[in-house]
Amino acid sequence: MEKLQKLADSIENTDIKLSLYGLIIEYTRNHGIMPTFAKALYKKYMIERNDFTKLDESYQFGKKVLDYTNFLDSNDQIKLNYALSVHAYSLMDYCSAIELGMYVAEHGKGEYQAHAIYNVCSAYYHRKQYDMCQLYLKKYSQFTYPFVPNNVKLMIAFINGKTGNIDLAISELNSYLQQPCAYTLTSAVTELLDLYLYKKDLDVGWLFQYEDLMTETTQKDYATPYIKSKFAYYFRLKGKLLKHKNQVSLAIDSYLKSS
């Protein structure tokens, strides 16, 4: 069995690797070899979660792996909880994202801990628990990794937009869009458009310049249901803007794209 494990780990072809892990899972389950069984389940999940066409299915499988975490070493336990926290967030299961991320925030270290804390922060934001969001954002901001300042900057703008500091949020988002991250561009543009419409400022057609890049982002392998839903909301807002400007035909086209 140890040789089969090493072979499975060394194979690069995903289908063959999954087939071998499947054999290991079946054999170790039938013979009660629980540490090897749990490890194979974990490795199978970590591969399958990267297939974004089966996010729901692989998420349910991953949650079942949690039943066997006692048989995993502490490092794999942290990686599993982090992976599932991000997975839950991608599926907009924010309660689970918080619960799973908290484990990594408390027991993890390094970049895993930093990313987990930001995931918890973001999940609280989407649950409109802005006090908790700010609490975890403060913890996150204490890390010195190069990706931290940009994420903090964007989240502060989002929070300001939701807590009534509209003008400040608009200024911060405009500043952020000077050097945006492709992964967060859709969220930033959509939030900014939403705030401008709230202020009844209709002279924001310049935001449409980001549409091609946002479209490209939603077609990437990493495009989650959350990103796609945010892009759909962008088109709904664009339709609303065009309707106010009496561009009815274009407004209808945008509404159709949002469906």
Got a strand count? 0
What value does the average pLDDT take?
A: 93
Shape: elongated
Rounded radius of gyration (Å): 21 Å
Our estimate of the beta-strand percent is under 5%
Tell me the number of helical segments per DSSP (H or I, 4 or more residues long): 14
Describe the structure.
The chain has 259 residues and is mainly α. It has three domains: 53 residues, no CATH class; 73 residues, Serine Threonine Protein Phosphatase 5, Tetratricopeptide repeat, CATH 1.25.40; 83 residues. It contains 14 helices and no strands. The protein is elongated and about 70 Å long. The termini are far apart.
Helices and strands, with pairings:
Elements: H1 2-10, H2 14-30, H3 34-48, H4 55-65, H5 74-90, H6 94-107, H7 110-126, H8 130-141, H9 148-162, H10 166-176, H11 182-198, H12 211-218, H13 225-244, H14 248-257
Helix pairs in contact: 1-2, 2-3, 3-4, 4-5, 5-6, 5-7, 6-7, 7-8, 8-9, 9-10, 10-11, 11-13, 13-14
At a glance:
With 259 residues, this protein is mostly helical.
Features:
Serine Threonine Protein Phosphatase 5, Tetratricopeptide repeat, 14 helices, 75% helix, 0% strand, elongated
